[in-house]
Design a protein that fits this description.
This is Putative aldo/keto reductase-like oxidoreductase. The protein is an alpha/beta fold. The protein is 40% helix and 14% strand. It has a single domain, classed as NADP-dependent oxidoreductase domain (TIM Barrel), CATH 3.20.20. The chain contains 16 helices and ten strands. The strands form two sheets. The chain has an eight-stranded parallel barrel with strand order 3-4-5-6-7-8-9-10, surrounded by four helices. Strands 1-2 form a two-stranded antiparallel sheet. The chain starts with a helix and ends in a 6-residue tail after the last helix.
Length: 339
């Protein structure tokens, strides 16, 4: 508990830390991809049209803030990086900032240069986005974040708020011009219609989104399918796709219709840049690494058989609770975060 308290105090004071973080040069780095070390046994893919190469397995940020042992979480992050995982996921609101604090510590001693660092902002206004971004920069102990995504775009009005005058997009573009962030994307897990609205708004405003993060798993095809409805549109627009909810937290595995390795290989078979998966122990890290080492794209016959096996269980989103309940909606529980 004392470790959690220290994590929390560090998170709470991060806004003060951020003011001391020097800014990178005021460039437009989106056209300047960064080269990182690559390891045998890991898969690397292009991130949309950014020119960046990242690991096809991404380390999910939420789970690293849950353990009461901060040092163990930091060791786990570094072990993942040492094994070739270069894509780091996080969010301003994960575990009251503890996840970012721990990742910031893990990325010291030369590790920051080895990874593509992503985090997310809940703020929908320019003011709230800027405040959260400064906190994240401080917690992550970096002067530039590779990718910042608008988090939990799950309501039909969210895209309009983000693109409105004085909205979060203005802050993101200004932060990119100032050299604080490199790429801009968005996430969501509720309904494909909201994602399509966001992509439509981007085109309307002549703005290119670099990434989109969304549920892609063995049950998604049967209910409010992001894979069927959003993935083709994103690919057509050159938006890098980040897959999440591979296991639907643990609920998809609880259905007993699919094994972890099958679920990971299904995600990796899709035309996505990264499959982001929660890693909270050395055993789960080994599972993710094994999935990469043993991966061969599933054939059309294998995909069909897998989807047939999950069809009944997937009915009405029974095991995709992020689509059908507010269980995973951090911003619903804390609307003040939106600004």
């Amino acid at each position: 508990m004392s470790m959690l308290r220290r994590d929390f105090l560090k998170s709470a004071s991060a806004v003060g830390i951020a003011s001391a973080v020097p800014l990178a040069s005021a460039q437009t780095p989106a056209s300047r991809p960064t080269t990182r070390p690559e390891s045998p046994g890991m898969i690397y893919r292009n991130l949309g049209t950014t020119g960046e190469r990242v690991s096809a397995i991404g380390l999910g940020g939420y789970h690293i803030g849950k353990s009461p042992d901060a040092d163990a979480s930091i060791r786990l992050i570094r072990s993942a990086i040492d094994a070739g995982i270069t894509f780091m996921d996080n969010c301003w609101d994960y575990n009251d900032g503890i996840s970012e604090v721990r990742m910031g510590h893990a990325l010291r001693d030369g590790y920051r240069q080895k990874v593509f660092l992503m985090t997310k902002m809940d703020g929908r206004t320019k003011e709230s986005y800027n405040k959260q971004l400064e906190q994240s920069l401080g917690r992550l102990q970096t002067d530039i974040i590779d990718l910042v995504q608008f988090h939990e775009v799950i309501r039909m009005e969210d895209p309009d708020r983000i693109f409105a005058p004085g909205g979060a997009l203005e802050a993101a573009v200004a932060a990119r011009q100032a050299g604080k962030i490199r790429y801009i994307g968005f996430t969501g897990h509720k309904d494909p219609a909201v994602h399509l609205r966001m992509l439509e708004m981007a085109q309307k405003h002549n703005f290119h989104l670099d990434t989109v993060q969304m549920p892609i798993n063995v049950m998604d095809a049967h209910f409010r399918s992001f894979t069927k409805e959003v993935l083709p549109v994103a690919l057509k627009q050159g938006v890098g796709v980040l897959a999440m909810k591979t296991f639907g937290d643990h609920f998809i595995l609880d259905s007993k219709t699919v094994e972890p390795m099958e679920a990971l290989h299904y995600g990796l078979t899709q035309p996505v840049s990264v499959v982001i998966t929660g890693i909270d122990s050395p055993q789960i890290l080994d599972q993710a690494l094994t999935a990469a080492k043993t991966f061969k794209p599933l054939s059309e016959t294998q995909v069909t058989a897998l989807l047939d096996r999950t069809k009944d269980a997937a009915s009405e989103g029974r095991f995709e609770l992020f689509k059908t309940s507010s269980r995973f909606d951090g911003t619903a529980a804390n609307p003040k975060w939106l600004g």
